[in-house]
Amino acid sequence: MARKANTGSADAANQGRLKQIALTYKMTRKADPKVGLVVAGVGIVVLGVLLAIGFLIGHPVYLGILGFVLGLLAAAIVFGRRAERAAFGQMEGQPGAAAAVLQNVGRGWTTTPAVAMNRSQDVVHRAVGRAGIVLVAEGNPNRVKPLLAAEKKRMSRVVVDVPVTDIIVGDGEGMVPLKKVRTTMLKLPRVLTGPQVTVANDRLRAMGDLMSNMPLPKGPMPKGMRMPRGGKMR
């Protein structure tokens, strides 16, 4: 029974991966119609080269198997890069794109989206990790700089001796393209210990963010809205 259960879970996991690959391919093909030809071409070329070498040295079977494996690997790498490029191309310019990137930076980072925002919907996101605090801003560079300065001043009240790095997303001078935000953050030197990161996160959470500090609207409660149990009207 245990073996059947393990086999069933493995089959389900494999089916899930295949569905995910198929979905990724469909999404990539919309932005990159030649992705299928390019990926297949890379795999065939690698297989062909190693197979030719195999015939020359008298070991076509061994080199053919090796070429098949390396061809699949090369095709997977090319597909992954083109899929990533297509995904960033679709996200670029969309509100909240940087927050989506921050959510996938990797383990060891705690992301809080939209810690600061102005009326023009320029926004600042915060990530905390071993490299310190990283503030990532989306919007007009001239408008987000005051936002970044105000957020730094606000954080300085609760966190001390924690390095803060600014990143403004964009293609202009001194800005970081969306597709390079993750690599830029991962290249930052790790200067904090695990406990120091925990302390910084706890203090920043206690300070609150934009959503938790947003005031509730005044006036009568709309029809159909119920108070939570234990809640009191003030």
Notes on the structure:
The chain has seven helices and four strands. The protein has helices at residues 2-31, 35-57, 60-91, 97-102, 141-155, 181-186, 194-207, and strands at residues 110-117, 123-129, 132-138, 164-168. The longest helix has 32 residues, at 60-91.
Q: Which key features would you list for this structure?
A:
single chain, 234 residues, elongated, transmembrane helix, transmembrane, DUF4191
In short:
This protein is of the alpha+beta class. It is 54% helix and 12% strand.
Gap from first CA to last CA: 59 Å
Helix/sheet category? alpha+beta
Order of helices and strands: HHHHEEEHEHH
Write down the overall geometry: elongated
Report the portion of residues in β strands: 5-15%
Please outline the helices and strands.
Elements: H1 2-31, H2 35-57, H3 60-91, H4 97-102, E1 110-117, E2 123-129, E3 132-138, H5 141-155, E4 164-168, H6 181-186, H7 194-207
